[in-house]
Amino acid sequence: MKNWLAVLGIAFLAWSLAIPAAADEQKQPLSRETLYKADVRIDPQKRQVAGSVEIRFWPKDAERAYVHLYPLAFTEEHKSVLWDELLGKDVEPGTYDNTRIAVEGKQAAAKRIGDVIEVPLAQTEGMPAGETEPVRLQLDFSMTLPRNDGRMSYDDHAMWLGNWLPILAVRDQQGWHLDPYEPIGDPFFSETANYEVNVTLPDSYQLASTATDHAAIVDSTVHGQKTYRLQAGNVRDFALVVMDATYHVLETKAGNTVVRTWYREKDSLDQAKGNHLAAVQSLRYFGSQFGTYPYTEYDVVRTGGSINGMEYPSIVFLDGRHFQPGGGSYGVVTTVHETAHQWFYSLVGNNQVDDAWLDEGFAEYATLAFLAESYPDLAESRVLLRQKRGMDTQEYVQEHLRPWQALHAFPDNQSYSDLVYSRTSAMLWALREAWGEERLHDALRQYVSTNRYGIASGSAWKALLADTAGEDAGAFLDYWINLDVTKKEEAAAWLERQRFWRSRSGQRTEEMAEK
Question: What is the pLDDT of residue 127?
């Protein structure tokens, strides 16, 4: 009994050290937070992942729960221009099997709906009511990775696992969100949870993940294998990259966070160093402007494929083009944008299917703000590009497209980029010019603080905007985000009033200083 208590004490200490703990703004994990406990084995040679996950949660629906199994989307072929742009031409489907689905240890008759499964709860004998105790949902799975250019695939040197673990669907006032995997945008919506993930690999491989990997316990008692015991708290997902010995790492501390950039031995070291510097500097800048970063590790990982960049909590993927000689500013800009997502997506969540402008547009504005501070020449051209693309919208008006719409409503990636990234960031840049950087960033800091670890909405931003402005901001947002051109003059007048009050405020400050 004493030995068991000692082990429990050591495990608790390791968990408490591994969970991010930085800053007064850090919210301690709540006792009712969802917990994912996974135990997986990865075979890089066969491109296979197998294991189990137990999800402990308090049901918001006494009858059923829904779980996203995104790898199911890649067990079949997709034929369309958008899917080709996402996955590339050289595509091989993967496999995915659930060998067991149980609730409180009893087999459950789950029903598949696309890449979601419905798990009945009401018929399970002995199941807790969910009011005082969590429900335990267990899934055993095995998968062979698909070959593609997307978020979850492999090449000769790595396996990158984005959106690979089973994850609970969100249920809110609008009901269940069971949106399928889309070939455009980031078709995900998740709430924060705690993760305990054991990953067993051949001992010649290494990994980077959402967890604080450099502080993880590594068990090498089995010859030829090692098991990482990974833990992460208050995160929206758990991503992972398995890398062979050709990978090297750059490491720098930014505040309380260790920033690590992973690159391959045949990559350009200069490009890797440039990306790493951008990650370190932008993480510091965003922390100073929008609120302290609470996690103690941040990984920027070179992958294969052509996903450009992809954000996950505490880790981002950058495809190999960002590490090639002569890449110039390409890697820097993508690194900074994905780092900005650590605030706008990771810390402040949103429905990325219906409200993509809230994370992509805000992350792009933050990118522009950082570049203006540290890479002014690069910022000037990028701001002008975003303004041009965000304002040249006549065609989109005729097609009834706008930034604030669901992903499936965008016919192509160009319209998605122009409206979600460019128009939203151009709107925020216009606010910056009217208010000044300090006032806008004060509002964004309040937005992050209010919604930290939660889910933000467009209406929440609208309310904060009106409160900061001192007047209703409906017409301004309708013009910019709903692309209602009938509100153009009202929006311009609103912005001019904001600019006027800023100048009056500055004049009064000068008068007070003179007195």
Answer: 60
